[in-house]
């Protein structure tokens, strides 16, 4: 195992250092820069507050736990990153990145050893698993590695239970907690794959004996899994409440009918590494990026298919079943509130491929015919892919990196065939695997577009906020997705964001002024931006040109957060205007606050019924709104506080996303919160000087903590049962 860990370190060094030397950076591209760096910085700030409930930097404000449980807050590696000063974040990321690969290798080695694989081949199999195409393709996601490790840990715990080893139930409960905790989305696929694993694992295998009373063990195991999930209730309930009000919840998983037509594309992903240049799909409705490649360096499916052909044991049937699920519409059973084409459970299939591969290596039997047949099959699939790419590109080659990747595939096939024909020793074949892995990482990283220009421009030319929210910023003119999270990078609340969890109400707000709105990931109004900036209290505007130059200026129509209205229109009246491109809807909301129909009676006596057609111009309406505004507005991780001085009762509007988790007090007395302007909040404030506090506490957190405590008590019971059995 020591040699394995050293080899992992050497591979990472040889793969990453040359790329850093050529590009001057490593991960400053794609989602790693657009999301991961910004999200880790926000996590560091929020955790430092001691009450990380409300993130002002995420869109217009968002539940922190619900928004970041998928990305950062449940990762021990992110916790390590938070210990580094912000100036050394990139150094911390490199350290934890290496730690992740070492942990993947160590856990895979432990699992393969438990499954009876020889020490040497266990180390080799762990290397194959750590550097599968799925792992390499996830380099810029960063948060995909924790679920990979957690799944291996889950299978180790299952094996302990099935073999009636000490603390089997306790280990399974703890492993289930880890799987659920590190990533609730990936947990779905992991548990489904583990359940399928157990079904086939119950088939007798002389090399891995399982005691009798299998059904009893399975039922006890299900109970232990439920205990582990219950222990995670303190996280799951807040996340559940947040997911219910996001656009992700509207994109329900569907039966993946496109997988039938996309069979060739999916076949390619188990034969060769990820392609990131040129046309990578066989049908317009599919996408290579959704398939998340499952192949392993050089070997691919070769020895695993040979193993399945020669054996009729549980492992062979499990491999074939997972392949069918991977290549068919049944893949959609692993998805949760997302595109059914995603195959982000490929790490489970990869681990089984690796196990079959190293078991075949342990047998030391002739594999010449099987390898030759596999080489022909893989070549046909890849050549079909190449033909499709060339046809899509007008018979022109798409690029040097594409050709290099195809050449890498054939080099691997050649090495495999030479080994099968005894022209190449197994040791040299393993060297070829390492070389293939390094080159594959080179090609993947070098092919990524770099956003270092944008990152450095924003980092050096945009002011850094102090965490006290008084107004918002707007970033305009950027051609990179990075600009959508510029506020997160610089600790400045912004009207933009690039995130996978977006509150549905905010979605409805921006749809009033965006023709190309991408609801799942980012917010940016494409028209009427000045009106939007005024409505959302934007004070500072940063213009960023294509060269990354940043120019700052103050917004002409800034209105402080918290201002009063004199008139209203109903939601029904406003909805009739939706879709009419001739109407400036943000200007309508500046002239008249939009009230929900059932709240008009509660607030209508303070306001006159406005006219959605007779609108004041932007300068006039902004001047009117500035007549009565909140003073000393301050936002923090628990909500916000403001002071107001009113000469008469007023309806005060706050551009804070409406949530039932907010509690409002005026001078310490609880006040009702009303939904206003589609998704924001308004209060009925009496005459005089007042202090207004909006306090946020995640829905479900308290209940979840009590349920987690119950789970811990049940875990203690499982531990007692384990001691009793071992006694």
Furnish the topology, listing elements before pairings.
Blueprint: H1 2-23, H2 30-49, E1 54-55, E2 62-63, H3 64-68, H4 76-82, H5 89-114, H6 119-130, H7 133-137, H8 145-162, H9 168-182, H10 184-201, H11 214-231, H12 233-243, H13 258-261, H14 263-269, H15 288-291, H16 302-310, H17 314-327, H18 346-363, H19 368-392, H20 400-420, H21 426-447, H22 452-461, E3 472-476, H23 486-490, E4 497-498, H24 504-511, E5 522-523, H25 529-535, E6 538-544, E7 550-554, E8 563-565, E9 567-570, H26 571-575, H27 585-591, E10 593-595, H28 600-603, E11 608-609, H29 618-625, E12 631-636, E13 639-646, E14 650-654, E15 662-666, E16 669-671, E17 674-676, E18 680-685, E19 688-696, H30 701-726
Parallel strand pairs: 3-6, 9-10, 9-11
Antiparallel strand pairs: 1-2, 4-5, 6-7, 8-14, 12-13, 13-19, 14-18, 15-16, 15-19, 17-18
Helix pairs in contact: 1-5, 1-6, 1-21, 2-4, 4-5, 5-6, 5-8, 6-18, 8-9, 8-10, 9-10, 9-11, 9-30, 10-17, 11-30, 12-30, 14-19, 16-17, 16-18, 16-19, 17-18, 19-20, 20-21, 25-27
